[in-house]
Structure formats: C-alpha cells, structure tokens
Amino acid sequence: MAMAVGAESQIRQITSATNSLVKVFRRALADGRTRDGWVAIEGPRFVEEALDAKDCAVHSVLITGGAAAQFSEFVTRLPQDAEIAQVPDAIFEALSGTKTPQGIAALVELPRWRLDEVLARAESPIVVACGLQDPGNLGTLVRSAQALGAAALVTLPATVSPFNPKALRSSAGAIFRLPVFAGIDSGDLLARLRRAGTRVIATDAKSGQDATEAALRGRVAILIGQEATGLNDVLRREADLQVKIPIRADADSLNAATAASILLYEAARQRGFVYEQRVVKA
Amino acid sequence: MAMAVGAESQIRQITSATNSLVKVFRRALADGRTRDGWVAIEGPRFVEEALDAKDCAVHSVLITGGAAAQFSEFVTRLPQDAEIAQVPDAIFEALSGTKTPQGIAALVELPRWRLDEVLARAESPIVVACGLQDPGNLGTLVRSAQALGAAALVTLPATVSPFNPKALRSSAGAIFRLPVFAGIDSGDLLARLRRAGTRVIATDAKSGQDATEAALRGRVAILIGQEATGLNDVLRREADLQVKIPIRADADSLNAATAASILLYEAARQRGFVYEQRVVKA
Questions:
Q1: DSSP 3-state helix, strand, coil percentages of chain B (rounded to 5)?
Q2: Is the dihedral of CA A130, A134, A135, A140 positive or negative?
C-alpha cells in the first residue's frame, strides 16, 4: 500500500452513526453546506478538484472502510490539520446523497471573496442569476461561467442556492475556482455595479439586440432570468442593453443556462478568448 | 363554459384504473412512448406545443375531472378522430410521472422523417449524440438543436432515449419540430453521412481547432461525446475535423449539452443566423 505511515495513523475510526462528525456530514451532504459555510462534496473526482484548487481548504474527509486503500493517495495530499475519519460502509451509505455512494466525502472551505473587490477588478462578465429554480441549471451555469472566464457569479435571493447539493454536483468543481456570491439583494447589487462602472445587460429571447452585434466587451454584468418567466420587468428596465440570441422563428426559447453559456461564449469571442488570471487575496 | 357541445359530447368517462386506455397512458408516461411509437406528454403547455406543431397528430387526451373546464379550449382544437377521456383525479395522479400532476396528458404521433431524405436536404448541422447518458442533457440538446436551426438530431445506440420522459420534458416541445432519429448504428450513420457529402466534426475539449476558426458552414455533422468520457477513439478518428471551444486553462470542461449548444450557435453565427424552412413530406 502506498499510504504513508504518518497519514495512516491520522485516520480516526468511527463506528457509531450518532458520532458528531457523522452528524455534521449527514446534515452538510443534505444541505450542501455546514453551518460554517463549508461545502460538502462526495466522490473521488470532486474531492480531487477540491485538493487541486489552491485557494480552497479541505477540512474533513470521511472514507468508508471498503474504500480506504483506494483513496490512500488523497489522504497523503490532505493538509496537516485536516480531520480524516473512516466509517463502516453502511453508515456512509446512509448519509450519502447519491444513489451509488463512492466511499469518500469532504468538507471544503471556499476562498472568502469580497464582492466590491471582485467588481472593481473584473475585466470579464459578472453573471447574475435572477431567479433560476433548477439546481442542475444553476450548477451548469457555474461550470460554464468558470470555463468561459466570467469574473464571478452572483445570485439574487429568490434563486436556488449555488451550494445546493445538486447544484454543486452540476458545477463539476467549478465552484472551487469561481467567486460566487449567493442571495445578494438586487437593488444593492445594481448600486454596486453602477459604482464599479459595470454595464448591465439583460437577456431577452424576444426583443433586444442580436448577441453578435451587442458590445459585450469591457465591464459587463449579464442578468439571467428565471427558467419559465424570464427576467422581471424591474430588472429589465434597469438594464443598459437588451440582448437576444437569434433563434428559429418557430422555436420557443433556449434553456436558461444554455442561453447564458452562449452569451458568455459570445463575450469571450469578442474578447479574443483572452482569459484573465484570477487573483485571490490571502 | 366555452366548450362546444360537439366536443363535450366526445368525452368518454372512465372510472376504472384497469381501463385499457388508462393502462396505455400509464405505460407510455413511464416509458415516454407507446408501442406504436407515439410520445406521451403531460401538462397544458406541452399539449399546446403538440397542437401547435402542424406535422404532429394528437391521438388521445386524458383529462382529470377537476381540470376539464380549464382545458375545454384544448378539446375544441383536437382532431376529429382523437380520443378524449376523463378520469378521476386519483387515477390521473397515480399514472402521472410528475410530482405535481397538471391534469392533462396526451399521446402524440410525430412526423415520420426519413434519415436519407433529411441528410440529402440538410443545409444546417446534423447533431449526433454519441453516448449521452443524462436524459435532461439530451432533452436540452434537442431544444438547442431545434432553436439554433440544426437539420436533425441522431442518437447512437448507447445513448439515452430522446423519448425518455425526462428528455421529453427538457426538450420543451422542440421534439415536435426537430427530426430525431434514435439508436442509429454509428457505422451505418457514418456511411450515410459520407454518401450525403456531409463533413463529420468531432468535439474535443483538449485538442482541435478553435470553434471560431473552424469552418462550420456547409453540410456538417457535429458529434457530441458522452458526458464523462467524451467521444470514443473510433469516432474521433473518423472525423474530418476536430473542434474545441476555447476555455480557461484552469477549467475542466463544459457540460456536454452546453458545449454542443455553443457549437450550434457558432455554426449559426457563421451562417449569418439564416435558418432554413423545414419541409415535411406528407
């Protein structure tokens, strides 16, 4: 076995389903986050993404007995102060949020971004999710936003949480690398965007300027409406520009996350796909 | 009530859960299709999409007692030979595939497209789903393909069915307007594409030409790989061109349906968003 003796000796053995760490994991995997705001994730690929993300801290790892040998490499990569515990398969299965538990879960502290600093530095689009309800959609949007170089993603209060377990899974690790601000009041956000000199762009499937002709360079925030009803009138009126993606006349609309991803692609295209470095404050 | 007397008199009253039409609906709503290949759909919005789609035939409609008055307008729009039945709410709820049943379901016959004719006529991309597993992803892809002017969507055998109930819901009615061919053998398809003079384009997140620089005009087929593993090597080697979407260096990848949608947008952009009319053979 490749496991270092030092690392192996760190592993706590837990056999009780009422153990406090087991309880913390159970609640966190159901809610997506602990009370401290650490995100709860499952599966080796997701844990690896967290370990690879320089600015995230993996605090606790839960491994099943059956999978311990398989994950020994992860254990050696954990920070010194991380808590590692091993539980029987049955306990793990009972707290897992997935149909086919993969035997490893972790609690991860995300970098603490400051919204005004991110807005002041942003050279690529800020994505604003205004009421998206489907966690898979929101997670997909986080994934696209990170991959296509958005500076941050902000959600308004009536939007599904980006830390919802299904949203986290759909984000495919992008949540560790993209500044995300959840539940920001729209009036407050619009004021901050104005202060930062950010142009506000509304997406509108019916009217608006064609995306290819709209100026998506410079400092912009792209507002994405709710899946069924789109963007509300107040937000639409606040926007500096309405943009649409030209689709077939006999088509209804695009999926909200898809439409947002296409606009992010178009914005990146207009910028020559030059993606800025992301600086994290210590 | 706005319901025409003629239409109202057509409505059969069914009170037994073992009635043969109830059984047909139960199986079809679980599988997505009847044995005759008619798709099973639920909800007023979806039924309206089917009625609006000129080339589809709505054969049977099931309405709950509680919702009959609300859907009287649908009934007047049904073809003369359509079967309309009313069932008690409890029976409807038991056969519904959704958490909040909306009291109306229908069986719809799609147009019978012929693959070789569609390929011979295609002036916009053919989308080929090569192993997608998530029905929501595939349905979203159908929706994007229709909206962004693809000529057809083809799935290879190991791909989730485009008629899976969740895929149908995610397609948001696009399934009624886009030629879809399910479970076509890859060797057979590639031969047909060659005969039709179609260039085969593989998507590859790592290598390949940037989408903006790749020639996506003319007759092309875009192959979309499986969510986790991408496109298999055989298909990749068969492609005339490898294309990638330029993303951040520290990003993993885009969601498969998102990546496909962006390529369809890019193809439409290169064609000036000129979408062709779709001709259905009688």
A1: 35, 20, 45
A2: negative
A7 pLDDT band, cuts 50/70/90, is low
Q: Closest to A248 (Cβ–Cβ): which among B147, B210, B269? A: B147
Q: pLDDT of B224-244, one tens digit each?
A: 999 888 899 999 999 999 999
Sort out which chain B residues have CB atoms less than 8 A from A269's CB and list them. 212
- How many Å apart are CA B34 and CA B40, to the nearest integer? 7
Which token pair is B177? 């307007």
How far out from the chain centre does Cα A16 lie?
Answer: 32
d(CA B70, CA B66): 8
In angstroms, rounded to a whole number, what is the distance separating the alpha carbons of residues B20 and B85?
A: 12
Beta-carbon contacts of A269 under 8 Å, excluding residues fewer than 6 positions away, are: B212
Q: What is the distance between the alpha carbons of residues B22 and B34, in angstroms, rounded to a whole number? A: 12
- Closest partner residue to B275 (CB to CB) among A49, A149, A248 is A248
Q: Count of alpha carbons within 13 Å of B199, Cβ hemisphere only?
A: 14
- Per-state percent for chain A, helix, strand, coil, to nearest 5: 35, 20, 45
pLDDT tens-place string over residues B89-134: 999 999 988 888 999 999 999 999 999 999 999 999 999 999 999 9
Nearest to A29 by CA among A88, A108, A96, A110: A96
Q: Where are the alpha helices (DSSP H) in B67-130?
A: 72-77, 89-95, 115-121
Structure tokens at A30: 């159901």
Alpha carbon distance A69, A78 (integer Å): 15
Which residue matches tokens 């539980």? A87
In tens, the pLDDT along A221-248 reads 999 999 888 899 999 999 999 999 999 9
Burial of A169 (0-12, 13-18, 19+ CB in 10 A): buried
Tokens of B118: 């569609």
ipTM value of the model? 0.92
Among B136, B252, B254, beta carbon nearest to A173: B252
End-to-end C-alpha distance for chain A, whole angstroms: 36
Q: Which of A124, A132, A253, A262 to mutate to test the interface with B (most CBs of B within 10 A)?
A: A262
Distance from CA of A276 to the nearest CA of B (A): 9
